[in-house]
Amino acid sequence: MSLAAFTKIKLLGKGSYGSVYEVKRNVDGKKYAMKEINLKFLSMKEEEESLNEIRILASFRHQNITKFKEAFIAEDKLYIVTELVDGGDLLQLIKRRKMTKRYFNEDTIWSIFIQICLGLHYLHDRYQVCKCVLNN
């Protein structure tokens, strides 16, 4: 794939390595999340970490972990395409619920907690440490 195969819809977030966009694949209209990392501003170590992230993401196969779709380099930027999670991340969901005073019931809290535990268990079984978990 190439960058021309996608249309940016909106910015989902920014991090230390780059930005994440909601994108639409032009051929079929399917939506994905696309992480954009500017390689020009990365040290060799950071560039290696980004490439390692791709290898790790590509190896994951679990219902509670975002699925990797593809990665490519274009215009001095690394693009990592993953499935788009409906509703955003957990922090966004918590903030939206708090703003509208629609708090989670206990069953929902347990369900979320169990899903997180199952995903982390999968990672730990494979001796993988996800920097996104450690950073948040």
From TrEMBL:
Single Gene Ontology MF annotation: ATP binding
Gene3D superfamilies cross-referenced by the UniProt entry: Phosphorylase Kinase, domain 1, Transferase(Phosphotransferase) domain 1
Keyword annotations from UniProtKB, A to Z: ATP-binding, Kinase, Nucleotide-binding, Serine/threonine-protein kinase, Transferase
Protein residues bound to ATP: 35
Organism superkingdom: Eukaryota
Domain Protein kinase residue range list: 6-136
Reactions this protein catalyses: L-threonyl-[protein] + ATP = O-phospho-L-threonyl-[protein] + ADP + H(+); L-seryl-[protein] + ATP = O-phospho-L-seryl-[protein] + ADP + H(+)
Membership in a protein family: Belongs to the protein kinase superfamily. NEK Ser/Thr protein kinase family. NIMA subfamily.
Protein name (record): non-specific serine/threonine protein kinase
Organism this protein belongs to: Streblomastix strix
Organism phylogeny: Eukaryota, Metamonada, Preaxostyla, Oxymonadida, Streblomastigidae
